[in-house]
Prior knowledge:
Elements: E1 8-11, E2 16-20, H1 27-30, E3 36-42, E4 46-48, E5 53-58, E6 64-69, E7 72-80, E8 90-92, E9 99-100, E10 105-109, H2 111-116, E11 120-127, E12 136-138, E13 143-144, E14 149-153
Antiparallel strand pairs: 1-14, 2-3, 2-13, 3-11, 4-10, 5-6, 5-9, 6-7, 7-11, 8-10, 12-14
Amino acid sequence: MGLFSKKTELYAPVSGVIKSVFETSDELFSSRSMGDGFMIEPNSKNIYSPIKGKIVSVFPTKHAIAIKTNNLEFLLHIGIDTVELNGEGFEINISENDKVDQNTLLGTVDFDFIKKMGKKTDVIFICTNLNETQKITLFDGDKINHSDNVGFIK
Length: 154
């Protein structure tokens, strides 16, 4: 890493309690086989962009959004097994190619409905293409508000 190596700031996509990605009950994410990141136990329905970047895709089932910035690719995954809800309980405000930042409301989620359907509400944010020299650094703390700066990748 040179003197001018770029840092990518990470923001809380939702208010709640931030935890290590290891703590999610979804083994695909907790094993970090898809990438490294963090999870939040949400206490709000509003979902904001965790990075400054561009929307690459919104899954048809609305439970996941792919975002790209600084040659890094990210996945924002809302809930566990929520793909089975076929978009029910999700309202998405953005589209492919939209530019977003930490103040962009991506959508809202009815987490009470998700719980009622027997699904977990973990909001998971991972970088899917970190190289060997890049590392996610999270700041200390647990209770966060949406758009709080929670760490960075360098």
